[in-house]
Amino acid sequence: MASVDINEVSYIQVKTLYQLPINDESFVVMTYLIDVEGRIKITMDIKPSRRLPQIPAYGLMIQMNAEFDSLKWHGRGPHSNYSDRKESAYIGFFESTVKDEWVPYIRPQECGNKTDVRFMEVIDKKNLHGLQIMASVPVEVTALGFTPYEIETYTHPHLMPDPTKRSFELTDINAVLPVMIVGSTT
Questions:
Q1: Cis amide linkage into residue 148, ω under 30° from 0
Q2: 85-117, pLDDT tens digit by residue?
Q3: What is the assigned CATH class of domain 1-51?
Q4: Where do the structural domains in the chain lie, given as residue ranges?
Q5: Which of 83, 95, 110, 127 has the smallest number of CB atoms closer than 10 Å to its CB?
Q6: Do 1-51 and 54-186 have matching folds?
Q7: Measured CA distances, 111 to 32, 98, 127 (Å)
Q8: How many CB atoms lie within 10 A of CB 115?
Q9: Which residues of the chain have pLDDT under 70?
Q10: In 3-state terms, what secondary structure has residue 159?
Q11: Rounded to two decimals, what is the model's pTM?
Q12: Does domain 54-186 have CATH number 3.40.50.720?
């Protein structure tokens, strides 16, 4: 279900209601506010039912063309860090590339995560176009050349799809608000 509110002077607002597939009592309301400059403000409001188990995280996954491969962010870095393992990563401004964020572990797994991010840009090679993420609260962000499904599905790096042979090379961006830490807290 969606509604559209148009203010011809300054913005278009699109509000969508997504029902979670787990049960019919849980849903997410997403509001897209698009201004005359082309900027999009996205807000998400999750309404879980009381029967829903604790949610580890929720957020947004965006797939962009692989030409968007330069990363700049303000948050913890420069290396991968996670909510329960971030003390060695200091807060500052950092730069990297999508390719450099991938770690070819013996078994493909999550990597390249950044915590306490309030600002990130994913920019094309010419530094002309891109996506800018600004968060009002610290979020976790990952930008890789593989989807979470691919990372979880393949058992060895050599079995992963060759990004250059896809019909669409991609940069997969995940911005999430962590709700629960899985694993050790020491």
A1: no
A2: 899 999 999 999 999 999 989 999 999 999 999
A3: mainly beta
A4: 1-51, 54-186
A5: 127
A6: no
A7: 29, 11, 25
A8: 21
A9: 1-9, 23, 166-169, 179-186
A10: helix
A11: 0.82
A12: no
